[in-house]
Amino acid sequence: MAYFPFMMDISGKRVVIVGGGRSALWKVRAFKGFEADITVIAPEAAEEIRRNKEVRLISREFREDDLQNADILVAATDDRALNRRIAQLARDHGVLANAVDDKEMCDFIFPAIVRRENYTVAISTDGKSPLLAREIKKAISRSIPDAYDEAVGELGAVRQKVKSKAETQDERQRIFTELAEKYIGARKLRIGTRGSELAMIQTEMVMDALQSIGIESEAVVIKTMGDKVQDKPLWKFGGKAVFVTDFEDAILKGKIDLAVHSAKDMPAACPDGTAVLACLKREDVRDVIVTRKGAAAEDIRIIGTSSLRRQVQLARLHPEYLCKSIRGNVPTRLHKLRAGEYDGVVLAAAGLHRLMLDQEPDLDYHYLSAEDVIPAAGQAVIAVEGLAEGEIAELVSGINDEKAFVELAAERRFMKAIDAGCHEAVGALAECREDGSITMRVMKDYGGAMSLHGLQETPHTAPETDENADGSAAGSANKAENAETEKVAGLKASLDAGRRAADLLAEEVIADDPERN
To answer: Least CB-packed of 20, 256, 430, 481 within 10 Å?
Structure first.
């Protein structure tokens, strides 16, 4: 049997409890405070039942006509067979029945209850362990702050007023959220993440960054399609989107507030309504060939990588290599290497560093220059995605690393401009320098014909702001305001430079397409 939990108003309902012993006493206590009309029928009853002025006591055996006008019956005698007969009679009369310790004869069960002035919490183990349900009740009761009771009362008092004035459900939701936060404090931001060790480490990095600016958060693990399908290369069943789409759906449906991504796993554009809100400082962008310790160069032949980008660039550097598809997280790939399935595996340096797997004593690490092997767009960047507009977007901007943000924006714009698909070998690497200029290199493979381009784009000079240099408080305030204005203007100028670089390089790469010539 599966019991569905729902709340029922039993004020004024006629409740008949048959039995006067310990079990009956527990049921009387359970109904206390809910304004039910309680009748106990038993030849003998516990003293607490006899003294309870809210209970009508009939001191005799139960009769079938006691069910007349009854709404709820509880058979709580010490005789299990009798309880079953009484419960069946109640059912025959269309009365909800509960036979103590007989799940088959229970139309409902009694939860353990946390009761406060303004709210009720019910805990049920579906009859499996009432004792454990009571222990869970105690734990929950201890964990709920007293402020919640007051908050519920205050929100209830203004609920009808808000509903009558707010025109939309979204507006009502916003008002109630603000009021709730006023009484119980801002809730923790819910951060969606994959369950792998690397994903959790990256999410913890974001949570630590948020905490450093006073924002509490919690992780919500979501298993994506990319995690579920491990026997095919990504480009054969959806590409990068298989790691991201589930999170974006959860953001748009309000199930999570933010999602943490390895930016290289993100498609070139976010769906309408979401955006990359912040990036953490970028790690090492390079790729690494990891081999078993001491392996001779001539013995390194079979290389594990499912990335078409890596495959075509490695073919130019090491034509002797034979690339073979590999799936799984970083530790899994290293295990396959150690097991001899591959002579080497290609991994992102950033992931190895974050997992602290970059100095394994039985492995050698061969770092590939980013000039020789251009990384994937977004490689080594941790991106935080959320709703494009709103309070959360403003809060999260406080952890943004502007350099990484500008670089990622340029690389993703390039990918979008050439309409790069998951089945294509494409790389893009932008570098934002201190003066705001952007250096960018890109590659795309056209069936063996490599398109390689690079350029530097200088930001358009932002207009200087006037400063009050009189040393007064007003002058200091103006300086601070101007500094913030210049910072925003500098970021915008760098983003614009990145856009121009991406667009120019996209034009050159598209022009190299053999099908266009």
So the answer is: 481
Question: Which has the minimum average pLDDT: 297-301, 407-411, 481-485?
Answer: 481-485
- Beta carbons within 8 Å of 477's beta carbon, 6+ residues apart: none
Residue 384, φ and ψ in degrees, nearest 5: -110, 120
Question: Parallel, antiparallel, or unpaired: how do β-strands 426-432 and 274-279 relate?
Answer: unpaired
Q: Roughly how many angstroms between the first and final C-alpha of the chain, as a whole number?
A: 69
Residues catalogued as catalytic: 264-265, 309-310, 327, 333, 422
- 3-class secondary structure per residue, 142-170: HHCCCHHHHHHHHHHHHHHHHHHHCCCHH
Cβ atoms of 386 and 277 closer than 8 Å: yes
Angle subtended by helix axes 330-338 and 197-212, to nearest 10: 140
What is the SS3 assignment for 354?
A: helix
Query: What is the 3-class SS of 23-91, one letter each residue?
Result: HHHHHHHHHCCCCCEEEEECCCCCHHHHHCCCEEEECCCCCHHHHCCCCEEEECCCCHHHHHHHHHHHH
**What are the start-end ranges of the H helices in 65-195?**
80-92, 130-143, 147-165, 169-184
Nearest-angstrom CA–CA distance, 417 and 37: 72
Beta bridge partners of 468: none
Say what the pTM is. 0.63
Chain centroid, CA 148 distance in Å: 25
Cα dihedral: 21, 22, 26, 31 (round 10)? 10
Residue 425 corresponds to which tokens in the numbers above? Answer: 């070998």
